[in-house]
Design goal:
Layout: E1 21-31, E2 34-46, E3 52-62, E4 68-81, E5 86-93, E6 97-106, E7 109-119, E8 126-136, E9 139-148, E10 154-163
Antiparallel strand pairs: 1-2, 1-10, 2-3, 3-4, 4-5, 5-6, 6-7, 7-8, 8-9, 9-10
Length: about 160
């Protein structure tokens, strides 16, 4: 699907402009504390001309045939663009975890790591993360590595999404 840069896009958002819009697709989840699973997902990146995108993601667990089994995760936040391709992501999860991520974007790639994590009393014990997003053949591919529940940083979810 063709993508056109918005005329009111803030110049600092140039390195992440390819992410704008709605993306849908499927992914995989795995971690030592859970059974491997498949999921459907939707990511939405919007802007209003200021140097940030509003971000919202939701996912649902699917069976082997791709049929929805149940709702899964929701996260929302702000992807802030700074001069020179630097980025910050402020992220809040339905599970009670809030995170600050920092990193860089260039050449159709965004790489971020956690800088700070807060959680409510009932939230899971997440201690670190790394995310990599890339524009590959017009699709959005991502990989999320997580450190949690006493486990070292390791792959948690990965997906390939198409522009809707």
């Amino acid at each position: 699907m063709a993508f056109e840069l918005p005329s009111d896009l803030h110049p600092d958002c140039g390195p992440i402009a390819w992410m704008l819009g709605t993306w849908r697709g499927n992914g995989h989840g795995d971690y030592p504390t859970i059974e491997p699973y498949q999921f459907g997902q939707e990511l939405i990146f919007t802007h209003d001309g200021r140097p940030f995108f509003h971000y919202m993601a939701r996912s649902w667990v699917v069976d082997a045939a791709g049929t929805k089994v149940r709702d899964d995760a929701i996260e929302t936040g702000f992807l802030r663009a700074l001069p020179g391709g630097k980025v910050e992501l402020l992220l809040s999860h339905e599970s009670g975890v809030v995170e600050i991520w920092i990193g860089e974007a260039e050449g159709g790639k965004l790489e971020i790591v956690t800088d700070a994590i807060g959680r409510t009393e009932g939230a899971p014990e997440v201690t670190g993360g790394k995310r990599l997003y890339g524009n590959v053949e017009g699709d959005l591919l991502y990989a999320y590595d997580m450190a949690a529940f006493g486990e070292a940083l390791q792959p948690r979810t990965w997906a390939r999404l198409q522009r809707a």
